[in-house]
Design brief:
GO cellular component, one term: nucleus
GO biological process, one term: regulation of transcription by RNA polymerase II
Oligomer: single chain
Order of helices and strands: HHHHHHH
Protein name: HMG box domain-containing protein
Pfam families: HMG_box
CATH class of the largest domain: Mainly Alpha
CATH superfamily of the largest domain: High mobility group box domain
Structural class: mainly alpha
GO molecular function, one term: DNA binding
Number of helices: 7
Number of domains: 2
């Protein structure tokens, strides 16, 4: 009964679950305006709200993806070599071995340059994206 009572108010008034003040507003609503049986259950309402999952953010498909780091660029190219040497390794073990090899790698300048270029392209794309968002 409590849930349907809250649901009628909350969802019809478009109160979002990921809003920071959501729990306080709902509890206030229940405590001030609800019937006696529901008011007695306000502890239950607080418990339920505290344990609610936050609404998943929708991702904008037009937003540029963040650039890869120098390590990730290197790992994506080196993963097949590591896998060829150790065909029975799991994915996590390959990543650990890649991390070890990256730490031992002396000349990282090639990968750091690629990462800087990718970051520069990303920043340009983000400027264009934000300009487009301001227009819309």
């Amino acid at each position: 009964m409590i849930q349907s009572y809250i649901a009628d108010h909350v969802w019809t008034n478009n109160i979002l679950r990921n809003d920071a003040s959501f729990d306080r507003r709902v509890v206030h609503f229940v405590v001030k305006r609800a019937s006696a049986s529901i008011r007695r259950s306000s502890i239950y309402v607080k418990f339920k709200i505290r344990n609610m999952k936050k609404a998943k953010k929708t991702q904008d498909k037009d937003k540029p993806k963040r650039p890869q780091t120098a390590f990730m660029l290197w790992l994506n190219e080196s993963r097949s070599k590591i896998k060829a040497k150790n065909p029975d390794m799991k994915v996590t073990e390959i990543a650990k071995e890649g991390g070890r090899q990256w730490r031992e790698l002396e000349d990282k300048s090639k990968w750091e340059t690629k990462a800087k270029d990718a970051k520069r392209l990303y920043e340009e794309a983000m400027k264009a994206y934000k300009a487009k968002q301001d227009v819309d």
